[in-house]
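Readers outside the structure-tokenisation community will struggle with the description of the input data as it stands. Showing the layout once, in full, would remove most of the difficulty. For illustration, here is how one protein appears when written out as sequence plus structure tokens:
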Amino acid sequence: MLGLGEGAMASSMNQTHMDDHHHLPSLQNYADIIYQCKKDKNLAQARSIHTQLCQYGIQTEMGNFLVPLFVQCGSISNAEQLFLQLNNRSDHSWNHLIQGYVDCGRLEQAIDAYKSSNMYRDICRVLDSPELVQELWVQVKLFPNKSSIFSLI
């Protein structure tokens, strides 16, 4: 499914939709479609995929793939709304949501999300200094070309 154009992707989506009366669509099929949609930054298709996944009741299984998709398509609001509905949030979803906040200039929300993530708690445990971790993260995210981790330690 990789490298499909919009027409072929729509055809695949229609086939997936047509099969809904016979069996549950393949999660791999959706993963391939999500990959292509993310590559094309096709927000309308992303919303369509999300709607179908909700109809099939498999949004939970695919939610951690959809959050990065919405961020990549430029809809941080869709990504945020879906993210908040997820019971099991992957580091991948956390990273994309945080990066989406940074890209939109919503730095306070990025920092708040980062502080809520498992990654932050794990790093704090290792470094034993939440203040150092926050400063390190802010420096790396906001000034990637000028920051030096070693100057903070």
